[in-house]
Fold this sequence. Notes:
Layout: E1 7-11, H1 16-27, E2 31-36, H2 39-49, E3 54-58, H3 64-78, E4 83-86, E5 93-94, H4 102-130, E6 132-137, H5 152-172, E7 177-184, H6 191-194, E8 196-197, H7 224-235, E9 246-249, H8 253-257
Parallel strand pairs: 1-2, 1-4, 2-3, 4-6, 5-8, 6-7, 7-9
Amino acid sequence: MQLEGRVALVTGAGSGIGRATADLMAREGAKVAALGPEEEELRDLVREIGDERAIAIDADVSQPDQMERAVRTVIDRWGSLDLVFANAGINGVWAPLEELSPEEWDKTLAINLKGTFLTVKYALPYLKRHGGSIIVTSSVNGTRMFSNTGATAYACSKAAQVAFTKMVAVELAPHKVRVNVICPGAIKTPIHEKTDRRDLEEVQIPVEFPEGQIPLTHGAQGDPMQVARLVVFLASDAADHITGTEIWIDGGESLLKG
Ligand code: NAD
């Protein structure tokens, strides 16, 4: 039980990586606040974990008032907050730059980047009390892979999350709050079906590899639980000298597709 006695806030907990991580954190002993817009999925998750050790929070990470309220809900329920997994995100619109509207750009940045800022900002006063661990979900896109032409807003938001992590890791080190960022490659989650792809054939440059796109798996996507295990490690005391670091979890994908 690596996370016994800890209280965790997981954003984007309704599906994919967030859901797998909320589940694993609970099995490792943490109490989990599962935040996202999917009421039914979150209710199911809370039922699975047990309502003594999990709560569902309906909030939008891009809205300051909702995130402030979300953190207050956690404190009212359990009195402390030790772990934050800032994971909620969207692929948004992938399109040639001239076709991408300013509103589409803003939406991706508001959820992925501002959402990370707000999640961490409102949690901080409580994390600082006893120290803690923050893990941010970035991506291979924008950090070690730049061949996903059209995913510009997404990649920029993900690159900025790495800078955010490093800035804040230094700022929070005196408070014993560690901040790390994970960069997954292709993981089998619903995010791929939600991507709004437009006219990408106009800008994408074909890339072909003889042995498939993910060296470690001959092309198969990763599993959300593989990512959850990394997050639990970073959240735990086993990672107590690790801060300000990005870790790619992609089976070597981004080494080929950079
Ligand atoms: P997902 O779509 O299954 O999960 C994303 C979650 O974020 C969903 O529960 C969604 O409802 C939630 N969310 C979206 N907008 C929100 C908002 N405004 N407020 C609160 N919650 C919101 O996809 P996933 O693959 O599990 O994605 C999780 C994170 O992993 C994202 O940040 C994504 O960019 C990143 N990522 C995923 C992959 C992949 O291949 N799946 C690769 C690299 C990075």
